[in-house]
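STRUCTURE:
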């Protein structure tokens, strides 16, 4: 029992730096097509998109499933994500 608790504690301890690492990685990927850094709202949008792609199991992406439980793709997924994110902002 002690080993299980220790393993869970270690897993949660390692999860926080992994999130920070992906945040930093997304900030370094926030560049324009010609390789120059982007700023302002464009940078924030780029980081937000990168973070959502880095953690697809969180939020709306985890719920993007068809009636039979298979992942949605293409236009169906895009439509679902827009609706889900709009509902989440309310």
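SEQUENCE:
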């Amino acid at each position: 029992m002690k080993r299980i608790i220790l393993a869970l504690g270690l897993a949660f301890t390692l999860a926080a730096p992994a999130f920070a690492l992906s945040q930093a990685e997304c900030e370094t990927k926030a560049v324009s097509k010609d390789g120059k850094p982007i700023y302002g709202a464009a940078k924030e949008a780029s980081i937000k998109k990168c973070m959502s792609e880095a953690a697809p199991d969180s939020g709306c992406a985890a719920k993007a499933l068809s009636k039979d439980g298979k992942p949605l793709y293409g236009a169906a997924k895009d439509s679902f994500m827009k609706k889900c994110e709009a509902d989440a902002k309310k």
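REMARK: The chain has a mean pLDDT of 77.
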